[in-house]
Amino acid sequence: MASNGTHLLSNQLYCAFTLPPISNTSWNNTSLGTNVSVNQLGVTAWIYCTSVLCVVGATLNLFVLILITKYSVLRTGVGHLIAHLLLCQMIMCAAIIPVSVHRITTVPKDLNLIYCRECKEKHPFQVIFTAIINWNEGILSLNRLLGGIAPIYYHNLNSRRMQYGSLLLPWSLVLLFAVPPAFDVWGVYLMSGIGACTLVPRHVVSVTLFVLNGYVSIVLTFVAAVGIIARFQFTAHHKKRTVEATNNAAALAPAVGPRVTPPFVASNWFSERQKRVSKMLVATSVSSICCQLPHYAFLLAGLAPKYSLTMGYLTALAYVHFTATPVRLPDV
């Protein structure tokens, strides 16, 4: 009797609601009525890998965030956007992801895919901060693109008011996407057999918001990176032709007075910085696509509730991205 009572209380703790019938859509192509077979060894490996990424990611993001807070020179330009990005990633690595790991290590192992109070109460935070981080990176990339193609107006476009305004729209879209499903509106939060939570859209509004928050920010990062690299290539080619023309003119001119050195050496440092920024943008774009796109593609296909362990490893790729971001920021 005591064992049955404990089992009942455990189910009531994690599963406050039973799963109502879901309409016949592409989101319902999973076996919701059967237990999910999970490789326990794979779950254990995921827990250890994720824990290590959380510790490293939280430490790196906190360290760089402290540097930006301490030195005002680091807050010039896009410093406030970078600080916002680091803060969100630190919260993810230090609080939100560990809560998810703890849930998986303590959840009863005999659960079906059901509504879960634990998911409805806590998983929205993970959805919100993951999407906001992607939007923040997209805004940073767009900011650098505008600086390359419109340097005259960049000071006005890069004002603090514009930076805060550029974050307001993504926050609105993300909250509109993540909060209603917590009240069973437009979507549901499901728990898999291992305790992993997933947001499953059930309405066209939720699907549209999912695409906006999941893909637009990644595409924005990629397009901005390509645009800036193309701009750098054009600028480098133009400067090379200018230097060649200057050298030819200097060679043909009569030697009167001391010879003036062409401005090639003076532009060397700027060209090297352009190359570093270009490489950083390529790295950011590739990292976002490789680490974020599989995660969102798996969700969009409706496979996350059924293949929860695979989804866990795809989500861990995003944690790798969060950990690597502070390492690349000095090149911005």
TrEMBL record:
Q: Is-annotated flag, keyword Membrane? A: yes
Could you tell me the keywords of this UniProt record?
Answer: Membrane, Transmembrane, Transmembrane helix
- Which ranges does the record mark as transmembrane? 45-69, 81-105, 125-146, 167-189, 209-232, 280-304
Domain of life of the organism encoding this protein: Eukaryota
Do the record's keywords include Cell inner membrane?
no
What Pfam families has UniProt attached to this entry? 7tm_1
Its main subcellular localisation, reduced to a broad class, is membrane
Tell me the leader sequence span. none
Please give one Gene Ontology molecular function term for this protein.
G protein-coupled receptor activity
Where in the numbering of this chain does the G-protein coupled receptors family 1 profile domain appear? 60-329
SUPFAM superfamilies documented for this protein? Family A G protein-coupled receptor-like
A Gene Ontology cellular-component term: membrane
Q: Where in the cell is it found?
A: Membrane
- Known PANTHER family for this protein? TRACE AMINE-ASSOCIATED RECEPTOR 13C-LIKE, TRACE AMINE-ASSOCIATED RECEPTOR 19N-RELATED
- This one is known as G-protein coupled receptors family 1 profile domain-containing protein
Q: Which organism is it from?
A: Hypsibius exemplaris
Could you read off the lineage of the organism from its UniProt record?
Eukaryota, Metazoa, Ecdysozoa, Tardigrada, Eutardigrada
